[in-house]
User: Fold this.
Amino acid sequence: MADNVQVNYNGKILECPVTVGTEGEKAFDIAKLRSQTGLITLDPGFSNTGSCKSAITYIDGEKGILRYRGIPIEQLAEHSTFVETAFLLIYGKLPNHGELEAFSAAFNEHSMIHEDMKNFFDAYPASTHPMASLSAMVCALSAYYPELIKENPNQKEMDRIAVQLLSKVRTICAFSYKKTIGEPFVYPRYDLHYVPNFLNMMFSSPTHPYKLVDEVVRALQVLLILHADHEQNCSTSTVRLVGSSRANLYASISAGICALWGPLHGGANQAVIEMLEGIQRDGGDVAKYITRAKDKNDHSRLMGFGHRVYKNFDPRAKIIKKCADDLLNKLGIHDPLLDLAKHMEDAALKDEYFISRKLYPNVDFYSGIIYRAVGIPLNMFPVMFAIGRMPGWIAHWKEMIQDPTNKIGRPFQIYVGAKMTDYVQLEQR
Ligand code: ACO
Assistant:
C-alpha cells in the first residue's frame, strides 16, 4: 500500500497521498491542503516543489545521473545525433531508419525563413544581443504561420510545428550572426545535415567557403545533445507556465528563451568566459576570484559552478571537459582560458567552501571553450544553448498540453505589504 503523509494542523489531520516515480522518487500531494486547512506551502525558488509528472527526462542529482527517455546521457553523447535525440525527446522513442530519414528530410524542407523576416535583422541595432532577436523572432514566427497557432495541435500539426521550429531557429541564429558582422546571409543547403548546415550558414561567405571539419561537427553535435533537455529547469518551467495559459508553442518558447538568457541559467556560458578573460587580464590570480566568490559582501560568484540539482558532479560537465580537451588537441589549439578553467576547478574542488556546499562545475563551465575553438562569438553562446534546448522545450510543451489533468500555473503568495489604509487626497499629503 502506498504511504500517506499526515498533516496535523489545528487538531485536524489531512491525509496527503504519496506519489512514487519510476525510479522510486517520492512526493506527497498537497492539492487539497488549502481547501482543507487554509494553509499554502511556501517554497521560494521552488527548491522543494514538484510542478508536474513528466516522462521525458530523469535526473538523480546525488549520483550524477541524467537520462533522456531512460537512455543515459553518456550513451547518447557517444552514439546519437542531435536530430535523433530531438526525435527521442519529442516522440518518446528512438526513431527507426525510415522515421529518422523522414524527420531529417523535414528539417531541410522547413529550414528557410520567410523572406520578409529578414527585415527584422535590419530593424534591430547591430549591437542587439542575439538572445533578444531570437526571442522576438521565434514569437514572430506565429505571425508567419498563423495556421499553426493552436491550443492543442493534432499530431500532423504538432509534427510540423516541432520540425519547423527546430530547423528555422538554426537559420535565424546564423542569419543574426551574419548581420552583426555585415556579411550576406548564407542560405541553408538541402544536402547538409543539421550541424554542418548551421556551421556553413555561420561561417561560409561568397569569398571563403567554409571547410567542414569532422571533429568540429561532432563536438557541436555532442554539445547540442547535452543541452537538449534538463527537466523542470528555469526556462523549461517558463515554457510550461506560459503554455499552461494555452499560449501557443512559439510564444511559450519565446518566453523560455528569455528565461534562459539570464547569467544564472543559460547565460552562464557567456559569463564564464567573461570571468576567465577578466582573471586573465588581471594577471591570472585564480585564488583572488575564489576568495571573492566566497565573500558574502561581494556579489560575484564562480560562474559555471553550482547547480540546484547536481550535488556531486554534473555528468554533462564531465563529457564536455573531455570533449574540449579532445577538440583543442585535434585542432592544435592552445587556449590559455582552458588552463585557467582547469586551475580554477582544481582550486575550488579543494576549498572547504565549495566542498561543504557541494558546488561543482556545471554544463556551462567548459562549453564556452569549445564554442571559442569553433569560432562562435561570445554573445552567441547562450544562443547555442537555446538551439540545443529547443527539443526539450517542445517535448515539455507537448507533454503538458496533452495531459488532461494539466491546469493553468498559478502559484500563491504570502502577502507582507501594508494593512488596509484609506486613500488620501493629493492636496492632503
Ligand atoms: N559561487 C559561489 N557560491 C555559490 C555558487 C557559486 N557559483 N553557487 C552557489 N553558491 C553558494 C551560495 O552562496 C549559497 O551559500 P550559503 O549557503 O552560504 O548562502 C550556497 O552555495 C547555495 O547556493 P544557492 O544560490 O542557494 O543555490 P541554488 O540552487 O539556488 O542556485 C545556481 C543554483 C543558480 C546554479 C548557483 O549555483 C549559481 O548561481 N551558480 C553560478 C551561475 C551558473 O553557473 N549557472 C548555471 C547553472 S546550470 C544551468 O542553468 C544550465
